[in-house]
Protein 1
Amino acid sequence: MNIPTPASLLHRRKGRLTEELVLHPGRFGLGQVPARLNPDSTTTMVCGFCSTGCGLQIHLRNGSAINLSPDPLYPVNLGMACPKGWEALAPLDAPDRATVPMLRDRNTGVRTPVSWEAAAQHFCTEFRRTQMTHGPESAAFLSTGQIVTEEMALLGALFKFGMGFVHCDSNTRQCMATSATAYKESFGFDAPPFTYADFEESDVLIFVGANPCIAHPIMWQRVLRNPRNPEIVVVDPRATETAMAAGQHFAILPRSDLLFFYGIAHLLFSNQWIDAGFLSRHTEEAEAFRAFVADYTPDRVAAGTGIPVERLERLARLIGSGKRVSFWWTMGVNQGHESTRTAQALINLALMTGNIGKPGTGANSITGQCNAMGSRLFGNVTSLLGGHDFRSASDRAKVADILNMDPERIPVQSSRAYDQILDDIEAGKIRALWVVATNSVHSWINHGRLRKTLGKLDFLVVQDLYHSTETAGIADLLLPAAGWGEKEGTFINSERRIGVVRKVRHAPGQALADFQIFRLLAETWGCGALFKKWSTPEAVFQILKKLSQGQPCDFSGIRDFQHLDAEGGIQWPYPENSPLPPARERRLFEEGRFFLPGGRARFYFEAPRPNPEPTDSEYPFVLLTGRGSSAQWHTLTRTSKSACLQNLAPKELWVEIHPSDARRLGIEAHSQVCVRSRRGSLRAGALLTTTVQPGQIFLPMHFPEVNQLTFPAFDPYSRQPSYKSCAVAITAA
Ligand SMILES: Nc1nc2c(c(=O)[nH]1)N[C@H]1C(S)=C(S)[C@@H](COP(=O)(O)OP(=O)(O)OC[C@H]3O[C@@H](n4cnc5c(=O)[nH]c(N)nc54)[C@H](O)[C@@H]3O)O[C@H]1N2
Ligand SMILES: Nc1nc2c(c(=O)[nH]1)N[C@H]1C(S)=C(S)[C@@H](COP(=O)(O)OP(=O)(O)OC[C@H]3O[C@@H](n4cnc5c(=O)[nH]c(N)nc54)[C@H](O)[C@@H]3O)O[C@H]1N2
Ligand code: SF4
Ligand SMILES: [Mo]
């Protein structure tokens, strides 16, 4: 295989840039960083869709973006972008942008435009009334992994330390809570250890419940650049685009992952295909884990997963072969009823075989949204700003000191989780809710119930780019927000790289950056003085640097946004006085030291539990859900605004059904079918395909009907919803 080097790749893509790159190879190793091209007409920033975090060049006329192209000098994407990146400006021009605050009259139901001053007054009056009458636990916010870190930090600090509320969560719960919990327990900090170079330096890449071909297309391009002729393995009930491109596909029974990986661990131990030295030097509880998996015999595991014993043995031998093995997982793991232990089953395999801290290895959770990592570190939700612990008095004192604030303002516990916040709304304990940059009424699990729950609120505020989203449609107060490209700040991508987002457009009408909205609310609430130093995103970045100091995520060595831009983003850790060149790719645990006391990683394990909603004669099919195409983003509020992206994906909801099931049920290709669960029903066009197994169907999450069907089960440790499996029936409509 002839793998292009970055320079030759560029030569083909953009001849004129090659010379610059070859002369100034700073981005790809040591050396000087090239000066920006055409500073008057081009600026650079990272993409605002997925967590890959591609660099884009934004082409300006009169200071406003008119077009963009992938940045050939950015070390993540090396001049490539997926369709969403190329079309990233289109959603900003949509006619349904929210352009003025709107307030609903609860008696008439009519919404009328109001000034920002009136909107902020109304917000504060309602939230304060709630607080005075029902206490500090009576209001909450739900936010996102899609705004800049500086905005997330300000929101969390304002709500908890400024306004004095306790509970908040974000859509990161739907997405990354499991990985965060698993890493914290196993490694001592929420720390995905990899760098994208690992895609290119691995001999064996194992993708579990991950479909990067469409969900992270540029990460997949990095896999394709691997010169080591790697073995690619996919573990997914569906024959996804990624599974079809892989050498081995394990179409395990849905929700049998935990059993499957305990079976692999059993084979690794019983054949001594392990790194005993690494286990004894760098881990704890390995012996207990060995004893635990003794029961997970190949016959038992084959029966429970649908994978023959020979194939289990072949996979175990491959993992234990001493080659560089990397484990990659996404939502097929995180969105399950026993997801934390499943993620840890993968972490355990990496530890057992010493596949961590070395090139091409790792137990690697791929994040989803552009700033999922930012929300994990600075959302102030499950951990205190900068990955600190709300429960620790010394952490609270440290944070309060940096923020020049009374430590008493910091809650001594982390927040209720998303589902618990909804339970509290239902029970009348939470009366006011503020939804920022997430579209819960579409994306939350079993949302038929959610709609009723939100109807119980005294006051619902939604802050979004568009007035047309399902959630904005039921808001009492709608706050119009600027989007990616209309404001500045930073994102943290999947490989812990901090990248810059810039203002290259004016937001329409009176829409304000979330940052400005939070500042306005701070002033109106009367706690503006507390945030005097939080004047701009750049100023907040300086505060976040201090908060990160001494933590595993320390990035105090980064000077400012310009430094980030010049280096093509910088991965944490990058402490002050770091001897490393900032552009050097970095992976964690190179010395085998983890963040738990004693420096050892810890094995976590637990017996698998039955699927919370198994199939039966009335609901005989397993429903799988997930991403439908590379052109569709979540609830489509953004991607449906691009004509180009619209043409790249079906516009109507489709359901994937195995041809043998269709034949049995008399369902014709492209005919309408009815899909029912115990909670709701929908109609969809039948796509007959062998990508799903008999007895299973797949629905893309991008259509609002889908989550009427899903079953609200949660992992007990991460409280992440189990979107990936529930029982349904299908009939010809
Ligand atoms: N185009 C596009 N890209 C995106 C997004 C988008 O909306 N559109 N969203 C971004 C976000 S926020 C996220 S979190 C990521 C998600 O990225 P992925 O997790 O890769 O995407 P999904 O399709 O949700 O789920 C992955 C796979 O899990 C499989 N799965 C279902 N049940 C099981 C099971 O029991 N075991 C196993 N092993 N696998 C199972 C599904 O069949 C599916 O193929 O994508 C990001 N990228
Ligand atoms: N069935 C099923 N359901 C799922 C999943 C699944 O696999 N299956 N996946 C889950 C996962 S992993 C995720 S991450 C969630 C995603 O679920 P959501 O977060 O609900 O999805 P989005 O469509 O990304 O919603 C983001 C909202 O923020 C707005 N927005 C964008 N940028 C900004 C900004 O800068 N400021 C403000 N104020 N608003 C902004 C957008 O217009 C949009 O309304 O869905 C989850 N739901
Ligand atoms: S792969 Fe992700 S970050 Fe890169 S262009 Fe596509 S959506 Fe943007
Ligand atoms: Mo996600």
Protein 2
Amino acid sequence: MALSSLFFFLFFLSSALWVSSASSVSDPTVKTFIVQVHPDAVKPSVFPTQAHWYASSLSSSSAADRILHTYSTVFRGFSARLSPSEADSLRALPHVAALIPEQVRHVHTTRSPEFLGLKSTDSAGLLKESDFGSDLVIGVIDTGIWPERQSFNDKEIGPVPPKWKGECVAGDNFPSTSCNRKLIGARFFCAGYEATNGRMNQSTEFRSPRDSDGHGTHTASIAAGRYVFPASTLGYARGVASGMAPKARLAAYKVCWNSGCYDSDILAAFDAAVADGVDVISLSVGGVVTPYYLDSIAIGAYGAVESGVFVSASAGNGGPGGLTVTNIAPWVTTVGAGTIDRDFPADVKLGKGRIVSGVSIYGGPGLTPGRMYPLIYAGSEGGDGYSASLCLDGSLDPSLVKGKIVVCDRGINSRAAKGEVVKKAGGIGMILANGVFDGEGLVADCHVLPAASVGAVGGDEIRKYIEAARKSKSLPTATIIFKGTRVGVRPAPVVASFSARGPNPVSPEIIKPDVIAPGLNILAAWPDNVGPSGIPSDKRKTEFNILSGTSMACPHVSGLAALLKAAHPEWSPAAIRSALMTTAYTVDNRGENMLDESSGNTSTVMDYGAGHVHPQKAIDPGLIYDLTTYDYIDFLCNSNYTTNNIRVVTRKKADCSGAKRAGHTGNLNYPSLSVTFQQYGIKHKLSSHFIRTVTNVGEANSVYKVSVRPPSGVKVMVEPEKLVFRRVGQRLNFLVRVQSHEVKLSPGSSSMRTGSIIWSDGKHTVTSPLVVTMQQPL
Ligand SMILES: *[C@@H]1O[C@H](CO)[C@@H](O)[C@H](O)[C@H]1NC(C)=O
Ligand SMILES: *[C@@H]1O[C@H](CO)[C@@H](O)[C@H](O)[C@H]1NC(C)=O
Ligand SMILES: *[C@@H]1O[C@H](CO)[C@@H](O)[C@H](O)[C@H]1NC(C)=O
């Protein structure tokens, strides 16, 4: 009797819980918060676990079920759905240090319609198939993984490293035997996602580490895919596919679902990855920029870096405008995207004989060679201009479009989705034309019908040709000539149009992105259940696919970081980043300054940071600019964050008195230097200084001499001008004084000048960009 009433009670309680969590999905005032528990608060012994204690902070009886995740490695606390009043009462509890509202993030491919597009890489060959890097584990926080891909085979790979504590978590269509000696761990985190959206639809996504999107499989194989030959997608980019670190191990942490990637899940992935023992975390995901103490990616990354884990993150695809860079915390390595010297040309031939060049990776049945097809612009033509032809679902009239090549404008719906709309309406081909905002940046997509993308100038020519034909009552015609894969393209690299740019919106003293890496038209592994265009009706299967985005650039750096860590096990995450930055290059394969794809103009430090990564040189940088967590704490102090806010990031009580003595944020021992001068009416000296410390990681008894390329109109002095290192590991300081004259600027405007500081011992060249920005207050 007693037993059955207890049973009844439990049942009742758990169904009450169910009702409460279900209603919290529909109640818009209930939101997910990440709750930090004071680093020095001690769990009262009445609670058997941290989770019980955390649940006790929530008032209702359903407390335990409302905890989404508990965190203990990179963060101390938990996440839960809270009403405004519950959030307030939690804040008042003595052991609660902070409440961080959740953000929803998204992956950084250009597949998302809001982004512009671009190109690819073959980074094979750096260290061949030696065992190099096989002890290193790269954790990829993304959309999961398709474990059966050849890129993840474990032939000739040794046993799992003994330090590994991770797991292969089973779920939908993903038995725990899905992992092997290459893919050594897989987990999924969906509590935050489901708390907001309700239980996921398991017929459209896998409630497991299996990838139902393709993005995570692609990024994981860029970082550490095995050599696979022949690799290609729809016949394009034929050759050997390989990740940057082909022998490194992979662990997949799935946090991104159909409606995005939720912070509470991302933080849980960081927590698990660091506890599992990864060496590198690769994160091709981002959202809006917030102060570091409200940014769970910055918080998770700090905990990872403190444990010696290198974190690389994509800069975002919000370019080419300024101030668009994301994932900017100074302990994260922020990666923008460049092109490679391979592209996929396609010519649009117009009836009057003109050729407009574009790009395409269409690989199905083609247009009849030599035949011209009627051409139509699907916006309303004529009048004072064109109304856009967006080729949205249902917007095309089959009677007008049938048998024709349709010109669609970039924007709103995804590039591949436009092709699907044209095909459904009976169109025979598509020309995807950039508008002024898109400029000349082009992304090659695996379209479902013969299609080519053209830039804004070419797009205008085609639109004008159609309009002229309409006025003269003649029939506009065109065809598309696919030219396959072209290699040896010059110039390359070029900063990809979409790649997000500086200045850094939170800490202008820290130049972001740090570096760029290949991110346009990248060939990498792809799941079976998603067609290469990514749209649901596309039933084609490809082992590989070509994607573009800073999402694709980031895992190049993650793989490279694993190789550097294998070569230099003692290097900190900051040392690895320093090696990548000080050896990066800023000239293209013509020997000229790298260009910006969006404008064709020379690009700047705000576009590429220190430059494009140079794997071979990064292995032997000579000197490094190292950093510890104490330096980051000083930096946060000098950024005027309160000690409470600093504690949210660092999980420690910060003593800022020492940091204030150390000076200013520009003194963070970063491999790049940036200062902003505010010009207030009165003539006065504009000067500042930077203190830097370099560590000799080259040879003993080396002498480095400085050379300075000052920004125009700026006087730069370095003291001393010579650094004499007796031994390896020795650290020496130098001081950089910067003095500028006032420049004529209109109120509210600014002017940026760039230069560099270069240390050389005759063998190594250690380069740091130096940026001086003059601002005229309003
Ligand atoms: C799940 O998705 C499938 C396929 O789109 C759909 O048919 C089904 O109705 C969905 N189920 C729910 C519960 O939404
Ligand atoms: C490119 O350079 C030209 C000439 O210096 C300049 O007029 C133009 O504004 C630049 N375009 C962009 C987008 O910066
Ligand atoms: C921090 O505050 C000090 C004193 O008010 C000020 O001089 C300094 O510029 C501030 N630093 C930042 C990064 O805002």
